[in-house]
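Running log. JK asked me to keep both predictions on one page so they can be read side by side. First protein, sequence followed by its tokens:
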Amino acid sequence: MSQPVLQLRMFDRDKDHALLVDWCNAHGGEVTPAHLLPPLGVIVQQDGEDAAILFLYYALSAGVCFVDCAATRPKLSLKESIECFDVAIGYLKSEARHNGYHVMLAHASPAVARCLSRIGFQKNKESLVRMFCLTDEN
């Protein structure tokens, strides 16, 4: 059995957000509204079929960036997910380095965190809760 061909393409907010919504809903995850997604998002394709999505946010003036809003095609195996995220992270790391960012953090579900830990991410010792608030409360 041959290895799947993995290719990377850029996420198109107008065309691909519905795919992100479908995958997040299928996994029971939170959906990030399109207007809150950063400009740099990638989709990894497996044998020409969309398989994983990942975004990179840059923290201004801090040299720190973070990956977020990860999603995979439903029923993608752990092995396939790791392979896809490895391709996505490789590209995003290269972009981050090119832009002067040297620390990459990850905000991820436990399932995605398992994938990321196998491709070089280290888990914090502290248990943090991810929270948000709106700045324009009415």
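And the second, directly underneath as requested:
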Amino acid sequence: MDNNFSAQVKEIISFSREEALRLGNDFIGTEHLLLGLIRDGDNTAIKV
């Protein structure tokens, strides 16, 4: 997963993966991405 993503995006994807695993899923869905964004707490999506 070493694409041209920023460090923050890589961290959010990592958080999303952890949330997916915590919830017993073997895929990252939109719900996991949302939880990853919330967990990051410092991004434009949260400010909106």
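Observation for JK regarding the second prediction: Residues 16 and 31 are 9 Å apart (CA to CA).
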